[in-house]
Write a structure and sequence with these properties.
There is one protein chain. By secondary structure, the chain is α+β, with helices and mostly antiparallel strands. The protein has two domains: 163 residues, no CATH class; 235 residues. 54% of the residues lie in helices and 17% in strands.
Length: 459
């Protein structure tokens, strides 16, 4: 008996060290991402912004115009530059805008142009450009029947034909057929040639678009949405953490049989998929959604999953819970598609592609996380690892919930930046699982060798 006690203690030491290592990594990652800050940007006066959003049948041009320069170009006195003053001169302003925005096809045919509502907003930076007022509006550009809508002359010279120092920056914000659904890119600039006194028309060439390009771009968007959606990842992973265990008397007990654990994890993943696929389609097709309550409910779902990982709340019913909360997460997913304002064939293909991308990324996460979870569940360290991970998830969820209810906090900011560390966390899980697996094999080998030596001595 005296000889076995040191061996047991020695076996526990590496396990305890692995637990401390895993929890330390999780805590360090949580702290290291707390200080992330988004870069600031501003455009220098005098500059106009024209951003093209390419739709199925039309092109929308979102335009920002500095009001000081607009006054100089038009001669219209806008006084205090308020929305009321701009609306009072809406007819004059609209007439000027339409006179200086005349796109044409490559064969010279004129496009139809309409102007949306005029609004005024503040722009600039007190530290660089100063705060100034700018006019915002959206033009709808409709190509003539039979013309190539992806190659045309922009025909834009608003302000720039009168204000010598003015520059127009033209970019593409979205172009589904061209495979651009996120990440605007610049097309070019428009300015007055001071030598000739002429404003050259910018030629727009959007390349060869196709439904295939749009579909594949939506698959990629779905993958990135889960990859960057820390809250969606955290909910699914937190719900999966106790899946390889058995619940006994309101407590998580020993490991479940491997087949049972795999079935449970598969069921949870599929239920979450069915749930969010249903509401993603409904919301994208017009079901009314209020974003703020949905985002708060997502934080609540993570909090509930975290409590369940510490102490069973719905043992054996995880599939139902995953399906229910999947409905809520799907409503959040739909916001991405609604922002693209797609219709017809593009909307149908986008729904399919976006959903496939989401599922592909989820399956990848489960496939990568499942093996180490099953292995670690059979080790003595899993209880402390499970509770530590669940506690961190609960803290993140509480921070998100507070922020989404209108109380910004540093915890929510830190949690938002944890998504970039997900692969590192998975790597740590794999290393821990491999170390424990090899340690168990070594101990089994030593035990077998000892038994053989003892049998040899007896013989």
């Amino acid at each position: 008996m005296q000889a076995t006690v040191p061996k047991a203690r020695a076996a526990r030491k590496p396990r305890a060290a692995v637990v401390r290592c895993l929890l330390t990594v999780l805590l360090v990652l949580a702290g290291s991402f707390a200080t992330g800050a988004a870069p600031a940007s501003a455009h220098v006066l005098p500059t106009s912004i024209v951003q093209l959003d390419v739709r199925e049948d039309v092109i929308e041009a979102r335009v920002n115009l500095p009001l000081d320069d607009l006054e100089s170009a038009t001669g219209i006195d806008l006084g205090d530059q308020t929305s009321e003053t701009v609306k009072a001169h809406a007819v004059e302003i609209t007439s000027y805008l339409l006179a200086h925005f005349a796109p044409t096809s490559d064969t010279g045919q004129a496009w139809a142009v309409t102007v949306g509502e005029l609004s005024v907003t503040e722009a600039g930076s007190a530290a660089t450009t100063g705060i100034y007022k700018e006019l915002q509006t959206t033009f709808t550009l409709t190509p003539p029947a039979g013309s190539n809508a992806r190659s045309f002359n922009l025909g834009y010279d608003i302000i720039v034909n009168q204000v010598v120092t003015h520059v127009v920056l033209v970019s593409v914000g979205s172009d589904w057929s061209g495979g651009v659904v996120t990440g605007a890119y610049q097309l070019g600039t428009i300015r007055l040639d001071t030598a000739s006194g002429v404003v050259s028309s910018l030629h727009v060439d959007l390349g060869q678009g196709s439904n295939t390009s749009g579909f594949l771009s939506m698959v990629a968007l779905g993958i990135h949405h889960i990859q960057d959606g820390t809250d969606h990842q955290l909910f699914l992973l937190t719900l999966l953490v106790p899946a390889p265990l058995l619940a006994v008397r309101r407590r998580w007990s020993g490991p479940a049989p491997v087949k049972r654990a795999v079935r449970r994890i598969t069921g949870i993943t599929l239920a979450f998929t069915v749930g969010h696929s249903l509401t993603l389609a409904l919301a994208t097709l017009g079901f009314p959604v209020t974003a703020a309550p949905i985002e708060a409910l997502i934080a609540v779902s993570i909090l509930i999953a975290a409590v369940h990982a510490i102490r069973p709340l719905f043992a054996g019913k995880e599939v139902l819970v995953a399906g229910f909360f999947g409905l809520i997460h799907g409503l959040a997913f739909s916001e991405t598609l609604r922002e693209l304002n797609l219709t017809g064939t593009q909307l149908g293909l986008s729904l399919l592609g976006f959903n496939l991308g989401i599922e592909a990324m989820q399956l990848f996460v489960v496939a990568v996380v499942l093996p180490p979870l099953v292995l670690l569940a059979r080790a003595g360290i899993y209880r402390r690892l499970r509770e530590g991970a669940a506690l961190l998830a609960a803290v993140a969820a509480a921070g998100w919930l507070a922020a989404r209810l209108g109380f910004p906090n540093v915890v929510a900011s830190a949690a938002d930046n944890l998504g970039g560390a997900s692969m590192l966390i998975v790597g740590v899980l794999w290393v821990a699982a491999i170390v424990l697996f090899l340690g168990q094999r070594r101990r089994v080998g030593e035990s077998t060798t000892s038994e053989r030596a003892l049998m040899a001595l007896r013989q």
